[in-house]
Amino acid sequence: MEIGKPKRRITVNPKSVPIPTPLPKFPDPAPVREPTPPAKVPEKVPAHSTSTSAVSSVPNGSGQA
Amino acid sequence: MSKSKVLPHVVSEEPIIAWRMWQAVAVLNLFSDDIVYRLRAVSKHTEWKPRITLKADCFALVSSLAKSSNRQVSVHLIGFKHQVPDIYCRCGIYALRTKEKLFNYFTGMKMDPAKPWTVVSANERGILPDRIMGCTVFGQVSLWGEIIEGEDGYRAEYAYPYDLTVLADDRRIADSLREQYQVDTRIELSQAHH
Questions:
Q1: Separation in Å, CA A33 to CA A26, A38, A39
Q2: pLDDT higher for A58 or B109?
């Protein structure tokens, strides 16, 4: 390709680069979740469980020796 | 004194809008298993990547030595890494001043932009899709950075398509180019230029 005899130099400093930004895409709607059934409470607490004793074992700092 | 300093020099904030031609090339997208269309230069087959500025490179050391017997030009290009585009060189992203000049150029080169052609393209892994009929695309292009303005057109440092016209009655190509390059894209039937 020929552009012909050079006439002048141009320095173009655009305020913003002339590249289109992608059009925003609307997010997909959040999937509808089935209601979660309430967790089943175990009928029997295992004998070695510490789940209830952990709180009571903490010193209460009441000063009783 | 460099010849480039002799040329008048202006500074602008507005990109130059000019005209050029591309080929629409089919590329296989391995992730989606779809065919998408990309633009590439007609002559050197440079790929114009979607939403990425095309920056001109110069391989003048090879091309100018091969094409020019002008010792001054050769010495200049060998001795100094030059600004792209340079007044001494032929480098830069080319575009012409008007649509008429663009079509006159391709007619003069005995290239018929309206004639469909078969695209044989490969993706980066070398996997060939089926042979697909491609087409020529023309349109306006934004030019910026350093630019050499000639009587008929420009050689620029940076470019990106401004709008595109697909010379084929194929909506898939137009839709794919519009989606990828995010510029106005339309279809123009080939007969319009005859």
A1: 20, 14, 16
A2: B109
B36's enclosing H/E stretch is strand B34-41
Q: Which of A22-26, A59-63, B64-68, B86-90 shows the lowest per-residue confidence on average (mean pLDDT)? A: B64-68
Amino acid at B187: I
B87–A3 C-beta distance less than 8 A: no
Domain spans of chain B?
Answer: 15-54+93-193, 57-91
Is this prediction's ipTM beyond 0.90?
Answer: no
Angstrom distance (rounded) from CA B169 to CA B73 = 46
Counted across chains A and B, CB pairs separated by less than 8 A come out at: 105
Question: Measured between alpha carbons, how far is B193 from A45 in angstroms, rounded to an integer?
Answer: 86
Checking if the pLDDT of B97 tops 90, the result is yes
Instruction: Please name the member of A5, A12, A21 whose beta carbon is closest to the beta carbon of B150.
Output: A5
